[in-house]
């Protein structure tokens, strides 16, 4: 099993957390987004989109972090990253989707590169752009977390789910874009609890072999 990823990529980060929680340790293959390695013919032969992460199982490579994480949950069901109750599963998936569908896609590297090079945005404008969408999403997340009276330290009840797997990399990204995280105490509490766990510690960007 090979994991093609980049240390600072949010989608790579979320998949690394999921793999660690499942106790899986694929070979780490760094794809340097800073040098456009993901756009080379060699990498596009693996993933025609030119995106990381890719999980190569030796036959058909798996692409798109939501699909890979769902595959992990089906193939390696313990520990479970989704609750068993259908309504609760929908709730956890919705929390994850706030990050995965509404925050991350419009703040990822290819969007920011377009803003910089095609629209002439400077770094202050880039940070404002990212902060706007992160703030919108985190405001909604904080409200949903506050409304859940059964929550015990994580996004759902007392153990990590896919919602936490999506949230922690987005917090890392928020710091890079100079977002003030003090306005979301419940999100801060969840980060503190997650980062006490070895899986989250080992998956952190700074711990990866290509970190610099």
Topology:
Blueprint: E1 2-5, H1 10-21, E2 27-30, H2 41-44, E3 54-56, E4 62-63, H3 65-75, H4 86-103, H5 109-117, H6 123-147, H7 162-176, H8 185-194, H9 198-203
Summarize the structure.
By secondary structure, the chain is an alpha+beta fold. It has helices spanning 10-21, 41-44, 65-75, 86-103, 109-117, 123-147, 162-176, 185-194, 198-203, and strands spanning 2-5, 27-30, 54-56, 62-63.
Main β sheet profile: 4 strands, mixed
Cα distance spanning the termini: 25 Å
The shape is: globular
Mind telling me the CATH class of the largest domain? Mainly Alpha
- Can you tell me the CATH architecture of the largest domain? Up-down Bundle
**Topology order in helix (H) and strand (E) letters:** EHEHEEHHHHHHH
Number of helices: 9
Q: Strands of the largest sheet, in order across it?
A: 2-1-3-4
Low-confidence stretches: none
Count of strand segments: 4
- Look up the CATH topology of the largest domain: Glutathione S-transferase Yfyf (Class Pi), Chain A, domain 2
User: Into how many domains do the coordinates divide?
Assistant: 2
Percent helix range: 40-55%
Look at the helices and sheets and give the structural class: alpha+beta
Rg over C-alpha atoms, rounded to the nearest angstrom: 17 Å
| Relative strand content | 5-15%
Q: What number is the mean pLDDT?
A: 96
């Amino acid at each position: 099993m090979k994991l093609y990823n980049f240390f600072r990529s949010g989608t790579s980060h979320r998949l690394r957390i999921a793999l660690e929680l499942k106790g899986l340790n694929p070979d780490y293959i760094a794809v340097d987004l800073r040098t456009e390695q993901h756009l080379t013919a060699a990498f596009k032969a693996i993933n025609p989109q030119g995106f990381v992460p890719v999980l190569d199982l030796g036959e058909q490579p798996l692409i798109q972090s939501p699909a890979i994480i769902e595959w992990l949950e089906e193939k390696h069901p313990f520990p479970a990253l989704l609750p068993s109750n259908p309504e609760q599963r929908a709730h956890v998936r919705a929390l994850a989707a706030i990050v995965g569908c509404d925050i991350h896609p419009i703040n990822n590297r290819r969007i920011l590169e377009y803003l910089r090079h095609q629209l002439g945005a400077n770094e202050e404008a880039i940070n404002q752009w990212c902060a706007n969408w992160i703030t919108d999403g985190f405001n909604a997340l904080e409200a949903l977390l506050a409304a859940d009276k059964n929550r015990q330290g994580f996004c759902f009840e007392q153990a990590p789910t896919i919602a936490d797997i999506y949230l922690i990399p987005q917090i890392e990204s928020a710091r890079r874009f100079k977002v003030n995280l003090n306005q979301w105490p419940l999100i801060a509490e969840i980060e503190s609890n997650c980062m006490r766990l070895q899986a989250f510690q080992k998956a952190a960007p700074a711990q990866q072999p290509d970190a610099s």
